[in-house]
Amino acid sequence: MTSKTDTADQALTLGDRVQTDRVHTSLYTDPAIFEAEMDKIFSSTWVWVAHASEVPEAGSFKNTYIGRQPVIVVRDRKQKVHVLLNRCRHRAATVCEGKKGKINSFVCPYHGWSYSLDGALRGVPHPESYADQLEKGELGLVSLRVEEYAGMLFATFNNDVEPLVDYLGPAKKWMDLFMKQGGGFPVKVQGEHRFRFPGNWKIQLENTTDAYHFPLVHKSFLSSVDKQTEEMLDFVTGTGYVEDLGNGHSVMVMIPALVDLEAELDAPIPERFAALADELRAEGTPDDEVRRIVRAVGGSGFNLNLFPNVACSMAFFRVLQPISVTETEIHHAVITMDGGPQAANQARLRMHEHFQGPMGFGTPDDSEAWERVQKGSSSGQDLWIMLNRGLAGEKETADGRASDVSAETGMRAAYQQWKKLMTA
Amino acid sequence: MNTELITQVSAFLWQEADMLDHGEYAPWLESWTPDGLYIVPIDPLETDFANTLNYAYDDAAMREKRVARLCSGESISTSPVPRTIRSVSRFRILTNDGTNVTVRCAQNLREFRKDVLKHYSADITVDLVRSGGSFLIRRKIIRLINSTDTLQGIGYIL
Q1: Interchain proximity A361–B65, CB inside 8 Å
Q2: pTM, rounded to two decimals
Q3: CATH topology of domain B3-144
Q4: ipTM above 0.90, yes or no
Q5: Radius of gyration, alpha carbons of chain A
Q6: What value does the mean pLDDT take over residues A351-370?
């Protein structure tokens, strides 16, 4: 790489670094860009924090992050969900630890300031030293704006951002379709696999709408499933598509026949679920219910990417959490049918373990590929990441733009939203 | 203390550990009862593994598939194959009825792949069934000390 080119590239504005068909490599490697992303993206737009089933009752909480800021998602006694900055207003200690649990109030372990489930400051030990000058009403835990759609909870630090339903736009109908995998029962998050990879968060963001990698990276997974499932997953040359849904959201339809899980309930039961169907029938489940459950048990035939940090990915929620410019944490939350038949939920758990997690047959291979993207990205700052696949065949649709199933349309959508927020 | 039983059990589990470190998967697959379960849980307190999410919950078919994947060369995360060296120790017999023996032990495993050395410690509980002059494994539960942390890929059999 010549120093002349490097100098020229350093002069590129942030906006110049996202073109229609490519993005600049510095988006994966520049710590200053990462710092700006935490502010202009993660602190400025709607960020997914939890599924409602993760905080089912009064006092249920989940600890998570928005960007790098620790937040508590908690349901109060009136069933309202709050997202609170996990930081005591006195001297900043976290007031809640543990990934999930149940709690009556938040008590800071350092000096004992206590907060109710809605974040209000309730008690300050030995207040006399403040001589009645402590404005308790002003010193609640910082409370973020929270809105929910289809059981998915989003929060934002930005009080001026548009309502969540407007931000989601046409993605809403895909969220509704995704929740049909409850098979007539509510969707429930029942645990998750967490892992980190040494690479930038946008490498993972891209992957959720990357059908192109599937037959190659997941060859060993495809070799471990039955013939019918292998054929179903051979979608790169199929009739699926990727659609830009606006605001950085996109959907990749891999298996068009599995878009609506409540349609075609009289279709033949797939070979891999025949034993499950027999088991459900033997338990006395009526045939129409068996068909609905079995059709839903394998998940939806699409991945919905919601910018910037969550995806409804076939049968699970994929959540990404940026750690640093070169490190990202991923959560793959398993979905079960809340109150559904045990045999069906066991099938869902086993399918998740088969592909996901550090010992799954899929995730470790994805992780290896992403790690190599990051490694390769350090080899010179004048090269670009190419995102022009499927650009030639892209056509306008009612909701945005679409191209073939292995097009990079979803990635282009995400980067246009990145550009919009980063240059605002 | 039944030192004769501890000797028999530890000899069997050391042989299993050696098979796994040296990629001798065919005899390892034969070390199980047909209904045997290989389980790597996430929650340290969980006992209902069938109805919760684990890292691995392998019946005979999944164990065979896991071995086939490791040997296939099709998986980029296991090519090159990680090298492992494990030490198994601290054996304690929990139950013994003459046919079925449950043993708890500690495993410390070092893994090296490409340029990274990793260390995994685990508490292991194994249900063994006497068979011929030796044992078969009916259930093996591998509780990683850091199972609730974020892990990276584990491209071998713990």
Answers
A1: yes
A2: 0.95
A3: Nuclear Transport Factor 2; Chain: A, (3.10.450)
A4: yes
A5: 23
A6: 95
